[in-house]
Amino acid sequence: MIDRNRLWDAQAAAEYDTPGEGMFAPEVLEPTVATLAALAAGGPALELAIGTGRVALPLRGAGVPVTGIELSPPMIARLREKADATRLPVVEGDMTTASAGEGFTLAYLVFDTLANLLTQEEQVACFCNAARQLAPGGCFVIELWVPQLRSLAPGHGGTVEVSEPGYLLVDTYDALAQQVVSHHLRFDPAVDGARTARITRTPHRYVWPAELDLMAQLAGFSLESRWADWEGTAFTADSRSHVSVYRLPAPSAPALETLER
């Protein structure tokens, strides 16, 4: 079993934030925060795998009380440089088992992080853990990529996902185990003809939307909405990612007592 703490170590935490760029770009964050704030509906939110606070901090700034769960102490330490525990409480622990309380109206897990759980059992446990901490009628939002197995050429087990100056991303697939390993190669093209590079690898378990829906059902959720992005674009067979909103049953109305005449 992969030790996820080794993947999200001090070096990963130090390099995680890219202010104003990539997943920290305003065009990425602003619709994410706006959608989550609307789904919170004035109640408190729980972020699983809160990381360095990329989403939680602006969501808190939008008036939504946020609590987090995070496995990696270095990621929590980076978050603590931005916000103390009174402003943004965080429980250190695994998102499949750790509890931050009950009564949240919203739980969310963004940026493909469910795939960091490498077995189906762990992924189902994550749904169940979210359900335990939500109030009746609460929702669980997951952002996840759609597996791109159609892009695999016959006889090949990998794809080049990103190729740009100084960075190359290659994904290799094990279709039987439903596993993909992302190989990140970073180099300085201006130095030594880029003969040296730093390589990091991150394993994932990819999940088809239909399988995700079944996991949700096992935890008591039903699918409410699915979009291709945070702006609500329609999800189609060609979408490369999705934002799925699952909801627990609403509280039952109290039964009316029969009045004797």
Gist?
Helices cover 25% and strands 28% of the residues. The chain is of the alpha/beta class and 261 residues long.
Q: Pairing-aware structural class of the strands and helices? A: alpha/beta
**Over all CA atoms, what is the radius of gyration?**
20 Å
Spell out the CATH superfamily of the largest domain.
Vaccinia Virus protein VP39
Unreliably modeled segments: none
Beta-strand proportion? 25-35%
Strand line-up in the sheet with most strands = 3-2-1-4-5-11-10
The fold-level CATH name of the largest domain is Rossmann fold
Q: Span between N and C termini?
A: 67 Å
How many alpha or pi helices?
7
Instruction: Summarize the amount of helix as a percent range.
Output: 10-25%
**CATH architecture classification name of the largest domain:** 3-Layer(aba) Sandwich
Keywords: Methyltransferase, Transferase
GO molecular function, one term: methyltransferase activity
Protein name: Methyltransferase family protein
